[in-house]
């Protein structure tokens, strides 16, 4: 536990340094600090999983977090190398989408234990409905997805399927399993982070310091909670 706490504190310090750098403006140095901050939550997940005997679900989480770190790198580099904005944006979306695929597959194949068929169907249906809502709210929220409409639908569907799956795990187990509750909390924060991020990417006037900071805070809280949840499996 002591090492987990040390990694959490170190991660918080790195996140603070990253936010200070981010407020000053986008740079390669900022991207490197963010990458290192992301690497720490992978280390936390790996150590937490090692401590609980290398739970099979931990492999899915660690790989998903690694894809999250790659997504972090691509989405930061889109601001550093603006001539490759489209390539880095799609790369970031794809990395995070694959990460959510791993979360979903991991939960449904490892954590689900003789669950009924609707335990699989309901979260997926919930995700697809929310993915459609993401597109339907484009004009009301004054967004412009342009060429990113399809990837936004796919990513939104996977994001909310992850959220729905964690919620089902908690409900089915009466919120009695600590690790499942932590996964659910992480999924909520992940969704909030991405909703804020969609405004900074596709909206207008939503790239204020408060938006950038709230996006990063909710995102890293989500990743660290998910990583630490492995300790309690």
List the helices and strands and how they pair.
Blueprint lengths: L1 H23 L3 H24 L4 H25 L4 H27 L6 H19 L12 H24 L5 H25 L6 H21 L4
Helix pairs in contact: 1-2, 1-8, 2-3, 2-8, 3-4, 4-6, 5-6, 6-7, 7-8
- From the N-terminal CA to the C-terminal CA, the straight-line distance is 14 Å
Shape: globular
Estimate what percentage of residues fall within beta strands: under 5%
The total number of structural domains is: 1
Provide the gyration radius in Å. 17 Å
The number of helical elements comes to: 8
Mean pLDDT equals: 90
**Major sheet:** none
Contiguous uncertain segments of 5+ residues: none
Number of strands: 0
Helical percentage:
over 70%
| Class by alpha and beta content | mainly alpha
Instruction: Summarize the helix and strand pattern as letters.
Output: HHHHHHHH
Describe this protein's structure.
The structure is a single chain. This protein is an all-alpha fold. It has one domain. The protein has helices spanning 2-24, 28-51, 56-80, 85-111, 118-136, 149-172, 178-202, 209-229. The longest helix has 27 residues, at 85-111. The model has no long low-confidence stretch (mean pLDDT 90).
């Amino acid at each position: 536990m002591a090492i987990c706490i040390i990694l959490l504190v170190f991660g918080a310090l790195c996140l603070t340094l990253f936010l200070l750098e981010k407020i000053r403006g986008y740079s390669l140095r900022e991207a490197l600090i963010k990458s290192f901050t992301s690497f720490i939550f992978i280390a936390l997940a790996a150590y937490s999983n090692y401590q609980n005997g290398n739970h099979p679900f931990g492999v899915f989480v660690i790989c998903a977090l690694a894809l999250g770190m790659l997504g972090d790198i691509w989405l930061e580099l889109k601001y550093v190398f603006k001539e490759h904005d489209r390539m880095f944006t799609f790369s970031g979306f794809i990395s995070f989408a694959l990460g959510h695929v791993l979360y979903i597959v991991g939960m449904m194949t490892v954590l689900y234990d003789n669950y009924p068929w609707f335990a699989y169907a309901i979260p997926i249906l919930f995700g697809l409905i929310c993915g459609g809502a993401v597109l339907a709210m484009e004009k009301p929220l004054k967004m412009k997805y342009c060429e990113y409409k399809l990837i936004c639908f796919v990513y939104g569907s996977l994001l909310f399927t992850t959220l729905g799956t964690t919620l089902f795990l908690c409900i089915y187990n009466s919120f009695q399993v600590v690790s499942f509750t932590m996964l659910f909390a992480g999924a909520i924060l992940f969704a909030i982070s991405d909703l804020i991020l969609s405004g900074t990417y596709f909206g207008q006037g939503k790239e204020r310091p408060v938006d950038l900071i709230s996006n990063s805070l909710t995102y890293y809280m989500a990743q660290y909670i998910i990583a630490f949840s492995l300790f309690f499996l």
